Amino acid sequence: MAEGHVIGVDLGGTKLLAGAVGSDLSVIHRTNRPVLGLTQDQLVQMVADAVEEIRTAVGTPIEAVGFGIPCTFDTRTGMAVQAVNVPLRDIAFAEVMANRLGVPVIVDNDANCHVYCEAKLGIAQGASEVVLLTLGTGIGGGLFLRGEVYRGWIGGGAELGHMVVEMNGRPCQGNCPNWGCLESVASGSALVREASLAVARRPDTELGAALEEGRELTGPLITELANAGDPVAAGAIETIGRALGVGIVNLLNIFNPQVVVVGGGVIAAGELLLAPARGVMMERALAPGKDVVRVEAARYGPEAGMIGAALFARELAAGRATGAIEARPS
Ligand SMILES: [Zn+2]
Question: Domains in the chain, please, with CATH?
Fold first, then answer.
């Protein structure tokens, strides 16, 4: 067993990425779909359609499908309970997909899939204690502790993006009822907001000119102009980086990880983001944790969640326990 293909699916707040992964872990076919503006039923249909497209392209039987979705879970019931940035709530996602697709499926939080990929194959390979933050629409969090993905008691855990860093801070986004979450100050959404405020004060910049030309204010545009030396774009990334650093201080003091991995779309900014984060960490975290940790960009980039989900699917096909939610067609 476990010699054929599996499919990995990474569902983010903005887009879905799916791919067939062979036994050598190479990605054979890929597809992506926009996520914004869908209802729960439309989202489930879109996800199933994306898997079917990959399955048709592969042409040979698929052993299992792994899904990374940005939700909390109740592993006692197999339910995906709550999502901040996608319209999923109280849905038996694994069971629904297993029955629709007619194959065994495994479902985990998208950031758990991401940390699993980086710990098994990526920048944190060989480390037993890994903390991961993915900066995209929101902030996903993954913990790999004592050599395993840590999900808390019943699968509601490791929502590291919703740790409070400003007790009286701004309301968090999406369906989060909290204020001052790390997600509200260090996500891709926060980056766009910071740049928007800054460029309004300084329209006489490259970023101001780009917006004048009708370009949309997005994370990739901010990163592009920051790399080209635009002070407003670089300043917005530094602001996000320092906020990220405060989150890392908390995680470092609590978990004493070997590696902190930063992934998601915003990590395209590279050292423009990580250098200020490390600076805050060295100013504010406790020794010895801060002196021995590595704070690194994810190696697998936008495909990490998809590959992690495929790794879980391969474990399922091989009959090995993972702790993630599994379902077979009834
Ligand atoms: Zn929150």
Answer: 5-109+303-327 (3.30.420.40), 123-298 (3.30.420.40)
